[in-house]
Amino acid sequence: MAITTTKSAFWKGFRDGAPFMLVSGPFGLLFGVLAVEAGLIVPEAMVFSLSVFAGSAQFTALQLMQENAPLVIILISALAVNLRVAMYSASLTPYLGDAPLWQRACAAYLTVDQSYALSIVQFETHPQMTLPQRMAYFFGTNGCVAPCWMLATFVGALVGAQIPASWGLDFVLPLAFLAMIGPMLRTPAHVIACFTAILTALPATALPYNLGLIVAGLVGMMAGAQAEVWIEKRRENRVFAKDTA
């Protein structure tokens, strides 16, 4: 369907983003349940989701809260987990950077994996879109996902408040992280970064204040970046050897 107006751009983004409710719904529900299990009351869980709106960062902060980590460590860890969003923002700037400040602020808040992935593909394949149409499409990608996440958090928190502590849902949080990490391992560099971080995290558990998570994340990112450089050089060398053969 051709995009001819800002309204049609919004609804196309809405339709493209709708399938992601199958992901945001269950994870929002899980977050609400685990937030209550960690000691938050329903309003606190909702404020958490509304103010952060970043699933991986929320789960990370929740895990550290359960371990009674210092506040500064919780904040640094959550920010480290969400560093990829800074790269998303830089990638979207050529397409949305000229929008009014309030729109860019709203877009920054709503920049998550699904909104970025859908938008960058749409913008690259349809360069004729105007700035208002691009912004409308971007907001449309979150038109159902964001409300679904908030509603699921609310329902999960209500349900979690009724679950006896003896059920011990702590084990679900590591499983949630595994479910989030799996689909992200799309390239050899991703795999190298992941397993380097794992190997670093095991001995790093001896560090105080749960600093092992931050150290492992930094080492994993450096390993992944170096792997990208190495893989790119090998690719260039193969192309050069083929051209000179």
Automatic annotation (TrEMBL):
Keywords: Cell membrane, Membrane, Transmembrane, Transmembrane helix, Transport. One of its GO terms (biological process) is L-valine transmembrane transport. It holds the Pfam family AzlC. The chain crosses the membrane at residues 20-41, 71-90, 135-159, 165-182. GO terms for cellular component: plasma membrane. It is found in: Cell membrane. Its main location: membrane. It is a multi-pass membrane protein. PANTHER family: INNER MEMBRANE PROTEIN YGAZ. Belongs to the AzlC family. This is Branched-chain amino acid transport protein azlC-like protein. The lineage of its organism: Bacteria, Pseudomonadati, Pseudomonadota, Alphaproteobacteria, Rhodobacterales.
